[in-house]
Amino acid sequence: MCKEEYVMSSWGPGHVHRLSMSNVSVVSRAFQASIHKLGMGAMDKTASFKLLDAYFDAGGNFIDTANAYQDETSEMFIGEWMEQRGIRDQIVLSTKFTMNFKARQNDVQQQVNYAGNNRKSMTLSVEASLKKLRTSYIDILYVHFWHWDASIRELMDGLHNLVTLGKVLYLGISDTPAWVVAQANQYALDHGKSPFVIYEGCWNVMDRAFEREIIPMVRAHGMALAPWNVLAQGKLRTDAEEEARRVSGEKGRTLFSADWERNEDEKKMSHALEKVAGEIGAKSISSVAIAYLMHKVPYCFPIIGGRKVEHLLSNIEALEISLSPEQIEFLESVLPFDPGFPATMIGNGISSTPFLETAGHCDRMPVQQTIPHTKKLVGRD
């Protein structure tokens, strides 16, 4: 059941890497195509197509969306964009179900079966997504989040049925406890079903809770990672960038908080990122923040979004950044991370467990290394 999926290591043709357990070629990061509003800025179709064109022209081919993003217009715009350019088969397209994608349609009186992880919700969502995306298949279908009601058996049997029908190629899961994913994949392997091959969740240099259970689970199951919120809701910015926003009135995202300015911890981390950016010759601290994640685990494909082409192109710089172990250690020292129990007692498996050292020292096998970068920034020796 082992499959191989490949991802491009740099923007442009010729360089591909495995996306762990599947069989498609995608770029080293995904572009989250949501038509921003509701406190996240605003974009019309023309601006959205311009951003998608810039992403594709730069070598990008992995697009992330969901059934309910922006009242379904995200999927609609992406489908129309791919159809107009005639590039559907060149795109690795991922979408999600679980959310109620009819939430804002008052003419749909009974909405209970348009949400959740049951088979009816799954079927309704996928059929609707195929129409909106103007395609006959979805490359990666994500469970958007664990709903607690549908059983693992119902979920995995339903998802596998979509794979056998050819409507979905690979399966992913997002925002779900590690134990659920592990149990679901074991059920799939035991019963000849399709397992999850990629996990999507919140992870950034400010918030490393992802590292407690999710990353060890992903390593054990050979899955890829697609972290979102990699720039901490846009709060990782220089003092100069924040002042420019204040002067222009542009401010920042206000979806989760009316306070768009950085707090003290966010300022400390931004200053640390700026220091590292200066050492390696990076043009932006956001690219350093993205590169940090890509140095932590193999098969890490950060999801980026935005409203401006210049921001997109700036973030692409992360693919060329090579951080030293000392620089990673420095960034992690700014806000110390508590791995929690039982890691505080038995470690993480990378080094020998102290309780067993009395029996003799055993060298540990090295963990799988991250994908090497193909370029170096000016200023790196």
Produce the secondary structure layout.
Blueprint: E1 6-8, E2 16-18, E3 25-27, E4 30-32, H1 45-57, E5 62-64, H2 73-85, E6 92-97, H3 119-132, E7 138-143, H4 152-164, E8 168-174, H5 178-190, E9 196-202, H6 210-221, E10 224-228, H7 239-248, H8 264-280, H9 285-296, E11 303-304, H10 309-316, H11 325-334, H12 343-346
Parallel strand pairs: 1-3, 4-5, 4-11, 5-6, 6-7, 7-8, 8-9, 9-10
Antiparallel strand pairs: 1-2
Descriptive overview:
By secondary structure, the protein is α/β, with parallel strands linked by helices. It has one domain: NADP-dependent oxidoreductase domain (TIM Barrel, Alpha-Beta Barrel). The protein has 12 helices and 11 strands. The chain has helices at residues 45-57, 73-85, 119-132, 152-164, 178-190, 210-221, 239-248, 264-280, 285-296, 309-316, 325-334, 343-346, and strands spanning 6-8, 16-18, 25-27, 30-32, 62-64, 92-97, 138-143, 168-174, 196-202, 224-228, 303-304. The strands form 2 sheets. Strands 10-9-8-7-6-5-4-11 form an 8-stranded parallel sheet, covered by helices on one side. Helix 4 crosses helix 5 (178-190) and helix 5 (178-190) runs parallel beside helix 6. The longest helix is centred in the C-terminal third of the chain and has 17 residues, at 264-280.
